[in-house]
Known about the structure:
By secondary structure, the protein is an alpha/beta fold. It has 2 domains: 12-62 and 76-126, Leucine Dehydrogenase, chain A, domain 1 (Rossmann fold); 147-286 and 316-337, 3-Layer(aba) Sandwich (Rossmann fold), CATH 3.40.50.720. The protein has 12 helices and 11 strands. It has helices spanning 49-69, 91-104, 119-126, 147-164, 182-193, 205-215, 268-274, 282-285, 288-298, 302-310, 312-326, 330-351, and strands spanning 12-18, 23-31, 37-44, 75-82, 109-113, 174-178, 197-201, 218-219, 232-235, 254-255, 278-279. The strands form 2 sheets. Strands 8-7-6-9-10-11 form a 6-stranded parallel sheet, with helices on both faces. α2 crosses α3 (119-126), α4 (147-164) crosses α5 and α4 (147-164) crosses α11. The longest helix has 22 residues, at 330-351. The radius of gyration is 19 Å and the shape is globular. Bound molecules: nicotinamide-adenine-dinucleotide. Nicotinamide-adenine-dinucleotide is lined by residues 113-116, 146-147, 150, 178-184, 201-204, 207, 222, 236-239, 258-260, 286, 289.
Amino acid sequence: MLQYPVELPHEAVHLFHDDETGLRAVVAIHSTALGPAIGGCRVQRYASESDATRDALRLSEAMTYKNALAGLDFGGGKAVIMLPDDGAFDRPKLFAAFGRCVQSLCGRFVTAEDAGSTVADMQAVARTTPHVAGLPQRANGLGGDPSPWTARGVFLAMRAAVAEQGGGGLDGAVVGVQGLGHVGMVLADLLNGAGAKLLVSDIDETRVAHAVARFGAERVAPDKIVTAPMDILAPCALGGAIDTTTVHRVQARLICGGANNQLAHPALGLELARRGILYAPDYLVNAGGIIAVCAEYRGGDVAAIEAKVADIGPRLVATMRAADQHGGTPNLLVDRQARRIVAEGWSRRRAA
Ligand code: NAD
């Protein structure tokens, strides 16, 4: 399972078991070149520990690049908790046990929410470690669920990309939102406010019904949403929306969403570009949440978060222009840029 193909190898992978609570977790620390590794805690069912580890490896690598590109003084890591098969587990105890695992890493890894975890879960983590963010919002506006920041960054990126492509605004654009969770539902709300016509999909029917009632959205079956006729696709579920099959059948002209690792493999960006589809690199556009989490952990302020999130659109446009001028795809361009920033981080640390 450690044969996972990466450009930069991981610094450490930790597997944790706790018999009392049923916790089985993986913490992958991809890089601490720029600072302590930070990344959310994904909670879902996995068929095996190898699957969970592979997910943690890939997600933590993306966190390194996301944090580097967003100009954060943090490295990349990710935690994955294998949801116990037995639904009767004690959730606060499980997360407190996970907090002890984070604490054992002595600040080399800081965690927060990701798909499947909540503010209440992070409160349970905070009982056993201070290396956690995404805690209830404070009076100064820091903290709370970071997902609305993620959704806002994606929305601003989408709007900027549409304008750069000469498409005017989002008013009247048909946008497909795959996954109506913490990020997808807020994004749908923002898009609805901007006049977009929404196609929505989720494996949870209550969320679909909510979006249909609230936004007048049209429901699309989960196996049809990626390839349905639309202007813009916003993957906001789990990874791999674009794989070797869907890459040939996507009809949207722009892919811009909140999900991590939307491409099953980075090379699929080449096929999208060949087909004239702009793929907005996932970790460039979905950095809003981690920007907010880092500010909370280090004690920043909301104005600084707003400024950094507002910069996501212009950074995407700069990437689109660089891809046009020098060739290459936006995702491979930002991969190179992020690796350069990480390499410079290592050089600085070695020189210090
Ligand atoms: P979430 O668990 O709240 O929502 C995910 C939603 O996707 C759920 O409603 C789920 O039912 C749905 N879903 C799962 N499989 C699906 C499928 N095949 N088709 C349609 N819907 C499906 O998670 P979230 O926090 O909203 O995160 C969504 C994605 O964004 C994840 O990939 C996450 O890693 C990424 N992300 C989240 C944040 C954040 O701030 N929460 C930040 C950066 C990236």
